[in-house]
Amino acid sequence: MSSAATRPAGPDDLWSVDDHLEDVLGSVRPLEPIELQLLDAQGCVLVEDITVPVSLPPFDNSSMDGYAVRVADVAGATEEFPAVLEVVGDVAAGPGQPVRVGPGQAVRIMTGAPLPPGAEAVVPVEWTDGGLGEGPVTGMRARSLAPEGGEGQVRVHRPAEARAHVRAKGSDVKAGDLALEAGTVLGPPQLALLAAVGRGTVRVRPRPRVVVLSTGSELVQPGEALANGQIYDSNSFALTAAARDAGAIAYRVGAVADDADTLRSTIEDQLVRADLVVTTGGVSVGAYDVVKEALSYAGDADEPGSGVEFRKLAMQPGKPQGFGSIGPDHIPLLALPGNPVSSYVSFELFVRPAIRTLMGLEDVHRPRVRATLTADGPLRSPKGRRQFLRGSYADGTVRPVGGAGSHLVAALAHADALIVVPEDVESVEPGTELEVVLLG
Question: Measuring CA to CA, how many Å separate 156 from each of 89, 95, 135, 139, 166?
Fold first, then answer.
């Protein structure tokens, strides 16, 4: 673990939120880059600048279905006095022999097809009679149904300026342009651009693999019947979803009973697919706090440098925390409290930034803003603790949602922000401006 953070003097002293976060992020390094196929790279961070090898579009092409013409041949054309041109062929998108447009001629052209030699503009088919000898048409008949449509005469009812309805070569990007910068997160539009410039693979930092597991013999999986003293496991679902939202590939492990050997064995089995392990529950001071019992050691002789340290933080909720590394590859592990709100708040403050650091992102934190508190009365906060209250944020104001209890998961479901009350503040009056962490 990092020595950059200021360690408390004694084991029972409190760590600050900032020191714990600094210790976590100081120990996590971005994953090594790999070459991936485009679709496998979705959500990953680019580690190289991408320059354009070929202009987009690579040739002048039509933006409309219509006729490629010379400007002089349609000058002054009206519906009453149309320009009558000889149709000398078809040109569709895709490879094919070019058809030259000479004086008094036109070529039927489809959207995306290369502009034929000699042509200066495209007139939409709606400006013509479609070669039928009548009034304006609304579209072309399919080539398979009317092969004669590429021959004969067409009447053009409107003039066209030079380059009308022509997409110029390189009008999107030109060869040699910078397409994407290193550090870009690859979403659908970015993958489309990579494919359009001919890249089949790309060098990225892979999405971190995060294993999430809950502990507690009282936990039952949703959908099963509850016995006396049992509750449903919600934490593992919340944290797995949160890890995916942060950009990770997340695996949820079924709840582990309160047995230290079983927990150690389960975690060891998961290390083969983990870049980060997150546990929830079993980190306080009770007799059945199995995570602390199983992982609280200075390290293994066969695995020098590994170990998990459990500490208390000057925050509410989320006072008990654990952090360290496990296994021969020193996989980072964050042990979070078991109360639903405590675990989720801890994830947002510590685990999400760790995931984003593994991805190689520069901005790893949720956005923060200043907002004016609206509440029915003053908010109380414990002395010496940084409190994170659930809130609803809108238009520069924030209102508390639910109470301060760390078990109130229903209130958490309706919150979109965390209200931050500093350590030295014990009461906050309505109208006070506070820092707010935006969750969505």
Answer: 16, 27, 10, 14, 17
**Mean predicted confidence (pLDDT) in 65-74:** 96
Pairing assessment for the beta strands 83-91 and 105-109 based on DSSP bridges: parallel
Q: Residue 241 has what pLDDT?
A: 96
pLDDT in tens, 127-149: 999 988 877 888 877 665 555 55
Pairing of strands 249-256, 45-46: unpaired
Which residue carries 């039927």 as its tokens? 108
Nearest to 420 by CA among 393, 387, 392: 387
Per-residue pLDDT of 252-282, as tens digits, reads 998 888 888 899 999 999 999 999 999 998 7
Q: Are 370 and 397 in contact (CB under 8 A)?
A: no
Give the per-residue pLDDT at 137.
85
Which residues, 6+ apart, have CB-to-CB distance to 291 below 8 Å? 215, 263, 279, 281, 282, 283, 322, 335
The answer to whether residues 308 and 297 touch, using CB atoms and an 8 Å cutoff, is yes
The tokens 């380059």 sit on which residue?
163
Q: For the chain, what is the mean pLDDT?
A: 90
On the 0-12 / 13-18 / 19+ scale of CB atoms within 10 A, 267 is buried
Q: Per-residue pLDDT averaged across 285-310, rounded?
A: 68
